[in-house]
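User: Can you fold this complex?
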Amino acid sequence: MIHWDHLPLWASLPTAALLVLGGGFTLTGCLGLLRLPHFYQRIHGPAITITLGTGCILIASMLLFSTLETRPVLHELLITLFLLMTTPMVSMLIMRAAVHRDLRQQHRLAAEKESPIAVYRDIQHQSRGDRKTS
Amino acid sequence: MNHVLPIALIFAMSCVSIAALLCCLRLLIGPSAQDRVLALDTLWICSMLMCLLLGIRYGSMIYFEVALLIALLGFVSTIAMAKFLMRGEIIE
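Assistant: Here's the predicted assembly.
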């Protein structure tokens, strides 16, 4: 609490505004994660948290520490850069996994509806083949 | 003098902790495995934000290193779990 007593007003007001905005964005994103009905809608909720919430809080931190130390503190750019690079990759991988799993389940259900015996035979055949190879 | 900044900081901290609680709720009730992975990824981000806010609160740069480490570990673990969901194994 001591370290920001000498902070000028022109730095503290934007920092406070950015902190409030970042907290609000984070809460909104996680509320979306909880409330949206389907998985493919739910994956868009955390995107707000990650980009806007994290961005606002990181800029606030950068502003505060730069003003306190009277030199540009750019460490936070590392986290920003890292998150901006990795977030699309993570969400793309989770989405691909979800699509794979859903398609596999749909195929299995459709095949069972068509001819349950064929699926049973198929499974038996597969397990026999596995046993042979192993 | 500056009474705005502590209030904003407390507001942001409570927002981030409520967000982490919501993520935990989704982690518990999530109907499918991919929901749980997504909730866990968001939980990593929430804990990273909490570390940054604590760093602002106490004015030390050590919390920043912790946040960087959390971001790195969260990325790797989420990639591993997504790969496990897709293939059923991590290292082929």
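Helices of chain A lie at 9-35, 39-42, 45-69, 76-114, 116-133. Chain A has a mean pLDDT of 82.
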